[in-house]
Amino acid sequence: MNTLLRLSDFLALPCRLAARLCGWLLLVLAAVILYDVVGRRFFSTGSFKLQELEWHIHGTIALLCFGWTYLADAHVRIDIFSSNMRHNTRLWIEIVAIVAFLIPFMVLLTWFGTDFVLRSFERGEGSPGGIGLPNRWIVKSVIPLGAMLTISGGLAVLFKAIVALRRPDILRTPWED
Fold it and tell me: Looking at the domain assignment, is residue 113 inside a domain?
């Protein structure tokens, strides 16, 4: 059991680091938006590249935080059904959902997302019309990276759920530390 908990902590670490990085990216995003808004309003210096950068940072934050969101149990759930279930039933549903849905979907997203990035890199893809940011493959690379982080977070929760089933005295829910 301790091995599974240590492995869970190890798998949760990249998700937590990505979330911390995204916290800093939120400050960068706020600065870019502020600069763009003030520049457009008072100095007529706004640019399409700044707006595109805002979307790229926003997308990066969203995709890199999926794993942490799953760890923190901050994702969307339908609690109206699960609130009446026994604790072990909820744990089993969590385990089945991770194994049957989360991991296979994220593996496919990693596989096809990597191909998506490689094609973008090979083509030298940039913004349409050439007025935006070049090297679109950089922001597209966040798709498979975010999927891998989500797999890591899902496995961390899976291992905690297994421990919680076998030793309910150790953990009450799979997402508690």
Answer: yes
Distance CA 80, CA 67 (A): 24
Question: Could you tell me if residue 172 is inside a domain?
Answer: no
Domain span at residue 76?
2-166
Query: pTM of the entire structure?
Result: 0.87
Q: Which residues contact 48 (CB under 8 A, 6 or more apart)?
A: 127, 131, 132
> Over the stretch 77-113, which tens digit does the pLDDT of each residue have?
766 777 788 888 888 999 999 999 999 999 999 999 9
Distance of CA 2 to the CA centre of its chain: 26
Overall residue count recorded for the chain in this entry: 177
Could you tell me the two tokens for 28?
Answer: 């960068």
- Sign of the Cα pseudo-torsion (59, 62, 65, 67, in order): negative
The DSSP call for residue 44 is S
Query: From CA 136, how far away is CA 126, in angstroms rounded?
Result: 5
